[in-house]
């Protein structure tokens, strides 16, 4: 089975992933913890790493079953084919999500176009390309997904 990228309605990522899991479809919604401030308090909330997107591991013949869930919109396409995410990229996202893994990363002289060997940093993905760097932020291209992920250094 392959991992596909499924677009959801805005702010429905966690609900769609949960409903798909209840249907027996493997779904993964990568989350990150963020501190949000209101006028009277601060609170840690989990927000999706990929806004309006989740990853589903489903057989080709069962791809349309995901649309039985309210909030599922459509699949992402890349070069006129459904975007496929490798198992290694999913594992890398899971590594990034579990920031409690104790990995300390140092970044030295990252420039646009630099190929990063992510496996040296403790991730299971092999390689990513730096799109551009600004201050303490780095945009890395995940080529199998056709997507750019912004990382804070």
Automatic annotation (TrEMBL):
Residues 2-93 form the NusG-like N-terminal domain. SUPFAM superfamilies: N-utilization substance G protein NusG, N-terminal domain (SSF82679). InterPro entries: NGN-like_dom (IPR006645), NGN_dom_sf (IPR036735). It comes from the Bacteria. GO terms for biological process: DNA-templated transcription elongation. Keywords: Transcription. NCBIfam families: antiterm_UpxY. This is NusG-like N-terminal domain-containing protein. It comes from Arenibacter certesii.
């Amino acid at each position: 089975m392959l991992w596909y990228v499924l677009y959801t309605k805005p702010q429905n990522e966690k609900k769609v992933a949960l409903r798909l899991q209840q249907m027996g479809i493997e779904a993964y919604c990568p989350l990150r913890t963020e501190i949000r401030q209101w006028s009277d308090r601060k609170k840690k909330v989990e927000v999706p790493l990929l806004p309006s997107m989740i990853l589903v591991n489903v057989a080709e013949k069962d791809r349309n079953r995901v649309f039985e869930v309210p909030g599922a919109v459509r699949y992402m396409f890349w070069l006129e084919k459904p975007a496929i995410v490798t198992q290694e990229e999913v594992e890398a996202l899971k590594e990034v999500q579990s920031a409690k893994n104790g990995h300390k990363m140092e970044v030295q002289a990252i420039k646009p176009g630099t190929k990063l060997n992510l496996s040296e940093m403790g991730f299971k993905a092999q390689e990513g390309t730096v799109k551009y760097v600004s201050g303490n932020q780095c945009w890395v291209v995940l080529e199998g997904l056709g997507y750019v992920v912004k990382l804070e250094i």
